[in-house]
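TICKET #2291
ISSUE: user wants both folds in one file
ATTACHMENT 1:
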Amino acid sequence: MLMNGILKDELGFQGFVQSDWLAQRSGVASALAGLDMSMPGDGLGWQDGKSLWGSELTKAVLNASVPVERLNDMALRIVATWYQLGQDDDRRWPNRTMGGGPNFSSWTNDEVGNLYPESPDSEDTGVVNKYVPVRQTVEGGNHDELARRIAREGIVLVKNEGGILPIPRSAEGLATKAKNGKLRIGIFGEDAFPNPKGDNTCPDRGCNEGTLAMGWGSGAVELPYLVAPAQALHREFDNATVQVTDWKTNGVKKVDGTAAAQDLCLVFINSDAGEGFIGWKAVKGDRNNLFPQKSGDELVKAVAANCGGRNEDGEAVSGTVVVLHTVGPTVLQRWIDLPGVKGVLIAHLPGQESGNALTDVLFGDYNPSGHLPYTIGEKEKDYGPDSRILKFPNGVVPQQNFSEGLYVDYRYFDKHNITPRYEFGYGLSYTTFKLSGLFIHPLGAVNTSLPAPRSHVNEPVPPHLDPRVPDPETAVWPKGMRRLAKYVYPYIDSVESAKPKGKYKYPKGYDHYHDLTEAGGGEGGNPDLYTTAVSVQASLTNSGDVAGEAVVQIYVSLPSTTTDLLLGQTVPLDTPVRQLRGFEKVLVEPGSRSHVRFGLTRKDVSYWDVRVQNWVVPTGELRVCVGFSSRDARQCGSFELVGGGENSWLRETGERGEVEEYDV
């Protein structure tokens, strides 16, 4: 249903479906379900060479368990992608004889290595790594600068009490009690410093040592370099007027004295996680909780309580700025309200340009524009009963039933009226913005409940391929061909091995054609779903003193009731309180104004009707808000959705109440 029905039919996906590594758990069944490519090809065990496909798929086609049409579809989708990417063009993708082909190995960093790694039959060697420079190229540009830009735009300023940020590079602007007149800056926490054993010491970045630049797992890469925050800070501060002190651990013993000797304290903490095949200490993939790791909370509390010493009321004299590197939502409640904590930056996973990107923001060279892509709750349980890590299986096979439905993150908080610490979409700037002049213009696209009927006129038609089962002799191992152990091949040992052993029992409904869904008809679904239904415009003014980028967000709230298309009666409509439907990042100079425009599509103002199996525009009031977070709506308006119209598809399907129910 998911691959054949929703992805390839409804969403019109023209590419191929590839499994995650070792995620394929069946042979014929996965082929019938719509899988097109198995990766890396092994079966149920890593590097065992016992593929669930390979020669087994060949046998399944020859004995008619897998229809030839399904095999043709797999091959067509894969080859079409090859052409789509222009890989038939020798000028762009030269072959091996022209000096092209693979230029790096996943198995070794050496220039020369085994040409057929992991096979016990092979001792063949050759050049496997060509060390092609790609960081700065004419075609791709300066990737180091791009990495720095991405990192700094991902930094989110969530607290800036008293305008403690940005900070000066020299002693000008901050008071000091030092006898030598130097501004005293303390850098606290292991996360500010590089891993002393090396940036790439832990395979696949599978540990939390030193500053956190990326999570761990098979998607991790070798860092070409890593600028740690402390390195960049030492470089940027004016050494003639600033004295920097390093506290390179998260230990709090005697940290109070060091903190008391500072005019400003910068505390670095983190929270790391990754893919489940790697474990670091008690973290076996996903985090066990949503708190900072390695006693980060304790470090913040100790430094923030003592930075600059204490006044008569027992509060810290100097301010503390906390920088958090994290893989996701992290609960800050243990220290966020401490009077000494004046500023908080969530720097996420910044990559190789970590320190450079951070100093761009800390010193005000770049005005922070990041906004939270998740909600930060006050407690772990605020995220709901399904948010906790599953430490024990909830059945013979651990099962995720997705009982939360649409109510994930901010939608869950809104539904249950839970006050977050920092809501979805939240982010501060060094300037201030105002929104005004909201203009909402409904268009004719929302005058009907259902999108236009699916048209087959412009839908792609695949080429006709021979559906007949091929001669089994063509699939037998070619004479003289070398066979490497643990490598996967499509050939069979004998014709006899491919003979049927009884009729394959297809899944229910697989042996006959099904009507195409009315929700489809193009890439992404019915093209009419992407017709602009509502035009929205607002004025954005920078009312502050510095230039900045505002991220204007648009949310919609569907009616709480609607007219049921099948029953003709008013029924409750269970949808989120508000739903993000778009955002725009706009640079505005101080004192200037800019216009922000959004186009809401028919799909943006629709809900999925399980019985009708289509996107339906409800009847009732649609509320549209623009603002700077999910709970910071600055301008709102509403209008009536009428729906109705000529829903010819429903009339052709049957009388009201006779449409088959689906549980999706």
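ATTACHMENT 2:
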Amino acid sequence: MKASELLQLYQEGERNFAGANLRGQSFEGKDLSGADFTGADIRGTNFSHTTLISANFSRAEAGLQRRGAVVLLLLVWLFAAVSGFFAAFNGYFVSLTFNTGDPASFVAGWVALITQLAFLAIFLCRGVTVAIAVTVIGAVAGAVAIAVAFVGAVAVAFAVAGAVVVVGAFVGAVAVAVAGAGAVVGAVAVAVAVGGAGAGAVAGIGAGAVAGAVAAANILISSYIGWRALAGDPKYLQIRSVAISVAAWGGTSFRGADLTHANFNQAHLKSVDLRKAKLVRTSWLHTRRLDRVRPGDSFLDNAQVRSLVQTGQGQGLEFIHQNLRGINLATADLENANFRAADLSEATLAGADLTSASLVQTQLDKTDLTGCTLTGATIEGWGITGNTNLQGVRCEYIFMRWVKPGASNPNPRRKPDNYEENFADKEFGYFIKPIVDTLDLYHNQNVNSRAIAIAFKQLAETHPEAELEIAAMEKRGQDKFLLKARTAQQANHSELSQEYFEAYNQARALTHKDAQQLLAAEKDARIRDLKNCFDMALKRPSFYAENYQQHGDLMAENSGPNINAGNNIGDVTGVASGDISGVINLGNIQGDINNAIQQLPERSDATQPDLKDLLSQLQTAIVNESELDEAEKAATLDQVKKLAEAGQAPEAGSMKKLANKATQIFKGTAAGLTEGAKLATVWEAVGPVIMTFFGLL
């Protein structure tokens, strides 16, 4: 079927092209979404930059046309011949060991033999990269050194032998890898023929047998390397990459195509170009020759991932830090699999078995988890969002905390807390809902508050449409910090997280002097305020954290402190907003608070609590609290001022919200103090009264 004919039928509404012969046709840049190419012959077909959303290529035959295969075979023979030529050259040098009448040639022969053996050993044991590097260095430095000590022939033997053996082995290995199982014998035969004949011709009759034997040995080693490259040996990835690239010339091309939801189940995909293709939820179950496609930088470049999408079997496997964005793992068996810090955004795991899997810090924005099993999974810091589909998730219990083997605190914070209880049907969805809609920025080592402040402010200014607003902060252990930010509903959490950590790592790499200059340039002190806020959160785990009952950690059930990184810094005004040294004048702050308290209206009913008196007690307790440093006192006093402002109109919705935030911060701060601390004692007495005054209890 011609391309023009198919496109006309598609325009008329036809979608069924099952079994069609489309060899060598071009659909470049067209839209064939939803087309059914089941069992079609698409060898040599050009689908570059074609829109193929939900297209069905199951059992399709892709790859090279017959003429393409013939051209490839000729190319393989050419590579084999070149490899044979280099092998013959090396054979000639080794044959010089029989030239005892010429000392220079005799020594050169032995130098060449030893050099070849050394470089082949490096190639076999350490791989392509090391062999090439050693070849370049050795050929130059060794030739110079030996040329000084011996004659020119010896220098040439050393310098050339190493380079020739590596290049010859590389070309020969590529030839074998390109040929594949079907044409290996022919490629080796050509290489041996050229190598043997060349060696005999160059070395002469007497030493021809030795030269030929050496050439044959070089060729066989090259063949072995090519076979190992084709099998996926990591030492020879460069050879495999070159071979697959060559083999894909003239094959089926999906380069730059949109293959979202496309189906390649049981298709034959040898010599297929998938570079820059959009592989979102594309299905690869039981696809043949998926290891021979040209994958570009997609997850198909990883042998373990290729096997996973082909078989759906990933029990106990590790995918730590892997970029698996858009992968299709529907119904896969992933029991005990480890996806720590992996990116599974936009992927589908619908119906998958994730029993006891590790989803620690896993990005799951727009991920489909419909009907999957999460019983026993660990979800500390996982990146679910409002766009994550959790419908019908089956889960009896979950672990909120990853426990390092041998940790002093082995509590994984199981939910439900009672080990005798499990979630009822659909209960997990209700449990997880309150923590879905935040952007979770999890810092797991060498936490730098200055870099956090710089990166967060930069992110907020770059993406004003995301409406970033800090919801809560939590210090976990000695070197872990979680920053949770509310966002607009349409915000892409995965992209925001990636961009934030790129900026964070750049800011963390700044020298102290550069960072100070950057902070000094912020005249409105926004970065400095955020930095001090983060500093206090790091010093005191409960500071600016809310009590998420469901989350099992110090995260919030109600809305947290409103810290906006745009033009205003919400609840951290007054915190170190002076010069860059962070010196805080508590006297000035207390003066502002006294004024705010005195402006409160007199109570009209003597039976009602006196808010002035209650706030004065809190103010005194904060100032005299020995467990708080100056910055913490300033931040906590600022909440007293907020309560005083809210007391001006306690029935107003905005004022009640302001009071709610302030009381939540007080609760967290008091919880972080030791039992019997002055502020904790005062808050225990006046806190409930203040909350009752604002109708929060």
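RESOLUTION: both attachments delivered.
EXTRA DETAIL ON ATTACHMENT 2: Residues 66-244 form one domain.
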